[in-house]
Amino acid sequence: MNEQLQPLKKQPRAGKAGRSGTQDDIVYAHIFEAILEQRLAPGTKLSEEALGEIFGVSRTIIRRALSRLAHEGVVLLRPNRGAVVASPSVEEARQVFLARRLVERAITELAVQHATAEQIAELRQMVNDERDSFSRGDRGAGIRLSGEFHLKLAEAAKNAPLISFQRSLVSQTSLIIAQYESGNRSHCSYDEHTQLIDAIEARNGELAVDLMMHHMDHIDSKLNLDEESASDDLHAVFSHLLQTKKPGRSSAKI
Amino acid sequence: MNEQLQPLKKQPRAGKAGRSGTQDDIVYAHIFEAILEQRLAPGTKLSEEALGEIFGVSRTIIRRALSRLAHEGVVLLRPNRGAVVASPSVEEARQVFLARRLVERAITELAVQHATAEQIAELRQMVNDERDSFSRGDRGAGIRLSGEFHLKLAEAAKNAPLISFQRSLVSQTSLIIAQYESGNRSHCSYDEHTQLIDAIEARNGELAVDLMMHHMDHIDSKLNLDEESASDDLHAVFSHLLQTKKPGRSSAKI
DNA sequence: CCACCATCCATTGTGTACAATCGCGGTGTT
DNA sequence: AACACCGCGATTGTACACAATGGATGGTGG
Fold it and tell me: Where does the record place the region Disordered (chains A, B) (predicted)?
């Protein structure tokens, strides 16, 4: 029925994100990407067997990948009831944003101190890719690249614990955006990213932090987190109870 | 041969730390605790089969537990070569402490805002336990409880991402202390913890943060991180290469 | 005598079979 | 007709068997 991907079996290394190449990395990266690009909606059930068939690997691998995703907070692992794409509550979203503000501030300061010319060039490249994606209309890739920009920035900060924490926060943020966006505007406006890089390259820590904080403001000002939760927010409110919500998003279907 | 623990099999819930009771949680908690109490030295190899025999479970469970520990940075998972207790380099230690300063500051501020009377009481209880452990001479339990104090504080901050990050940082800190301590003094002096609680209870954020920052200063002033690495620090310097280092620490054995 | 190479062994990586658990639908009773 | 109980199906949890990898060791050639 649902054999959507060719089994990919022992694809030597052709995958996109899995650099280490071990199978569970590949699976992890694909699911991760799918969630970040909103091809998997919050609440979607992630059956081990189905995923195993899709990727052509056994449940063992799938299980590890899901476990990792659960650690990062993008997947919810309910004992004996399977895994679902996480659907963060408003409160959880607030907590993530609070933590992110904190981390982004520190990362920015550190990046100003430690970023190499090469890393700055890579950052610029990512902003270009991001802009391209949005102008191409590929909103999903845009969101993902926008997140990856912040991750790259974390790498420039040269602090391993912060990088891994940032990874978790960025993924959850993408999920939150997917769930709560007002829908009217594009997300991380990439000129903000560009300005940020400029400030970092100029080693202007104070300006960079200011820009980053404003950037954070812009991000969550685009969300519906505050108070108002009527009509279709009902889904969000009770989404942690749902389990069979299908990818199709518009609630007015049939 | 080395059946040290009774298989514990389906022990209903009698364990100490594993509240959720699923077997891998129990195993995870035990190894975690052993590392934090320095019953497992950095660099010790963690054989899946041996652990499985000890805990009376299959390698599947052990593997999951190790995976979790690796995510938190206290275990190093080398592909095809097994797991070892992490032995953080000086640079890694610095990164952990930097991140911790950051997080502890935020946690302190948040705890001042959100800590309930009940939580404050629990914190006081933990300090008591900690003092008892040290005065009883149980240094391992003291270190662990000291770490758990900081974790409890994170819970009072009511921010899930910060809690999980703090968990990772605290465990790594314990490992670092185990590896680099000067050995002369007790670790988290518990009166600092008491003063901190007082400030939090008084809702004096500024004072609380100051105390916490000084507390952090004291912690890493007790370590040998800075420059000096002679004689027995040789172990630490090359520990990331070692793999068969047995728990017994004094190198003058047989 | 030393260095290089092939083989062996120990340990991990993966797949699969079986057992346990939960949700769901049927059936009987009140 | 509505509620409660029971059995069934599906999915996850666990263990085990086999495959693959890497290190160690012994042998051989220079």
Answer: 1-20
CA of B77 to C1' of C2 (A): 36
Establish if B160 touches chain A: CB-CB under 8 angstroms: yes
In A2-58, alpha helices (H): 23-36, 48-55
A178: CB partners within 8 A, 6+ apart: A35, A38, A41, A42, A143
The answer to whether B122 and B151 have CB atoms below 8 angstroms apart is: no
Strands B75-78 and A82-85: unpaired
**Whether A106 and B106 lie within 8 Å, measured CB to CB:** no
Q: pTM of the predicted model, to two decimals?
A: 0.84
Among candidate residues B74, B92, B103, B100, the one with its CA nearest the CA of residue B225: B92
Q: Is B160 helix (H, G, I), strand (E, B) or coil?
A: helix
Q: Calculate the angstrom distance between C1' of C21 and CA of A62.
A: 20
pLDDT tens, position by position, A183-226: 655 555 778 999 999 999 999 999 999 999 999 998 878 776 65
Give φ, ψ of A156 to 5 degrees: -65, -20
Nearest to B159 by CA among A98, A201, A215, A3: A98
Considering only CB atoms, which chain B residues are within 8 Å of A91? Answer: none
pLDDT recorded at residue B227 = 52
CA A170 – CA B158 distance, rounded (Å): 20
- Residues of A (59-78) whose Cβ lies below 8 Å from B: 64, 67-68, 71, 73
Q: Does residue B43 come out as left (phi exceeding 0), alpha (psi in the -120 to 50 range) or beta? A: left
